[in-house]
Amino acid sequence: MALLELRNVIRRFGDFTAVDNVSLSIEAGEFFTLLGPSGCGKTTLLRMIAGFDVPDSGQIFLDGQDIANTLPEKRPVHTVFQSYALFPHMTVTDNVAFPLKMSKVAPAEIKKRVEKALEEVQLPKFAHRFPHELSGGQKQRVAFARGLINRPRLLLMDEPLGALDAKLREDMQRELISLQKEVGITFIFVTHSQDEALALSQRIAVMNLGKVEQIGTPSVIYGTPANRFIADFIGKINLMEAQVTQISNTAMTLEINGLGTTVLPPKKEIQAGDQGVIAIRPEQVAVHALAKQAEIPHAHTGKVLDFLYVGDVTTYVIELDSGIQIEALLANSSPGRARFFEVDDPVIVSWPQEAAQFLVDRP
Ligand code: ATP
């Protein structure tokens, strides 16, 4: 049985549907992320799991029990917010001990558990400091320790790393992964950052306009996005408008606007005439100097329009003869090599046929 199950959950504000018929289940011990652009309904969904808000219809089961009528403080669920929500007049120890004091746990037991919790988040040395004497990352660790001290069944986190700078955020992501492994508690993490979702999660639910569009492991979401929205939202990708011209049991022939035909393996429920996009990740695109053209299958000629060197990789924007622009990501693996091509260099681009995916547009 799943630890948490949402069945057809709907939440409306006036005539606006913020959460639109969401069903999903989360297993005990998972690191599960709700990912989507601002306003897609992530926080509203999280608030209903926590009990701060109620669905207009649908059900939420925790350990098989419908928790619709359970008050937030009676749910074995704790929420960590981006704003830390620490008590400013209390020390780190007292902040972390607070939920245990509320539950009237014996002082000796509180002391033992707070010490353990501070060790889990690597903060024993800061036990006597006040929140204003801590960095953002340290404050968020205190919030995690307070969230875990009562050993909830679910720890909900709403953009908890959102206020931290990039480097600290990366460190905290690593710490969160090991913390979750150590404590074994189910984490539901909300973010609009696709990098963060890919880095942290065992599974991701991608949301858009109140609906869950795809649920899967990071590699499935990145490697086989279910539709144009997800392909575009997760990582960088080249999308080229295309139409299915022929389909058989063994092959699907497509006309890519401005690039001619291509043949891919057939996909279920696709018919001749269907419109959509061909999607190819920039790291799948190869770029060659013009002279090699004869040897390369499925090659397209063009010229370098622009490039962005960022140390380990260079992203090239290439304009093909048909006017289509394609991005290619090349690793700068040789020491000291800054780039392979200059602006205006004539080049050939190609990609393995199997790297291209057709994503059909459905109304
Ligand atoms: P963000 O990443 O910006 O926090 P989100 O995906 O968490 O976005 P929600 O906060 O769940 O989005 O909001 C979803 C939509 O519902 C938004 O359009 C928001 O304006 C609307 N909304 C949320 N709460 C209310 C409310 N109490 N009354 C009216 N509309 C609301």
Automatic annotation (TrEMBL):
<feature type="domain" description="ABC transporter">
    <location>
        <begin position="4"/>
        <end position="234"/>
    </location>
</feature>
<dbReference type="GO" id="GO:0005524">
    <property type="term" value="F:ATP binding"/>
</dbReference>
<dbReference type="InterPro" id="IPR008995">
    <property type="entry name" value="Mo/tungstate-bd_C_term_dom"/>
</dbReference>
<dbReference type="InterPro" id="IPR003439">
    <property type="entry name" value="ABC_transporter-like_ATP-bd"/>
</dbReference>
<keyword id="KW-0067">ATP-binding</keyword>
<keyword id="KW-0547">Nucleotide-binding</keyword>
<dbReference type="GO" id="GO:0043190">
    <property type="term" value="C:ATP-binding cassette (ABC) transporter complex"/>
</dbReference>
<dbReference type="InterPro" id="IPR017879">
    <property type="entry name" value="PotA_ATP-bd"/>
</dbReference>
<protein>
    <recommendedName>
        <fullName>Spermidine/putrescine import ATP-binding protein PotA</fullName>
        <ecNumber>7.6.2.11</ecNumber>
    </recommendedName>
</protein>
<dbReference type="InterPro" id="IPR005893">
    <property type="entry name" value="PotA-like"/>
</dbReference>
<keyword id="KW-0472">Membrane</keyword>
<dbReference type="InterPro" id="IPR027417">
    <property type="entry name" value="P-loop_NTPase"/>
</dbReference>
<comment type="subunit">
    <text>The complex is composed of two ATP-binding proteins (PotA), two transmembrane proteins (PotB and PotC) and a solute-binding protein (PotD).</text>
</comment>
<keyword id="KW-1278">Translocase</keyword>
<dbReference type="Pfam" id="PF08402">
    <property type="entry name" value="TOBE_2"/>
</dbReference>
<dbReference type="GO" id="GO:0016887">
    <property type="term" value="F:ATP hydrolysis activity"/>
</dbReference>
<dbReference type="InterPro" id="IPR003593">
    <property type="entry name" value="AAA+_ATPase"/>
</dbReference>
<keyword id="KW-1003">Cell membrane</keyword>
<dbReference type="Pfam" id="PF00005">
    <property type="entry name" value="ABC_tran"/>
</dbReference>
<dbReference type="InterPro" id="IPR013611">
    <property type="entry name" value="Transp-assoc_OB_typ2"/>
</dbReference>
<dbReference type="InterPro" id="IPR050093">
    <property type="entry name" value="ABC_SmlMolc_Importer"/>
</dbReference>
<comment type="function">
    <text>Part of the ABC transporter complex PotABCD involved in spermidine/putrescine import. Responsible for energy coupling to the transport system.</text>
</comment>
<dbReference type="GO" id="GO:0015594">
    <property type="term" value="F:ABC-type putrescine transporter activity"/>
</dbReference>
<comment type="similarity">
    <text>Belongs to the ABC transporter superfamily. Spermidine/putrescine importer (TC 3.A.1.11.1) family.</text>
</comment>
<keyword id="KW-0813">Transport</keyword>
<dbReference type="InterPro" id="IPR017871">
    <property type="entry name" value="ABC_transporter-like_CS"/>
</dbReference>
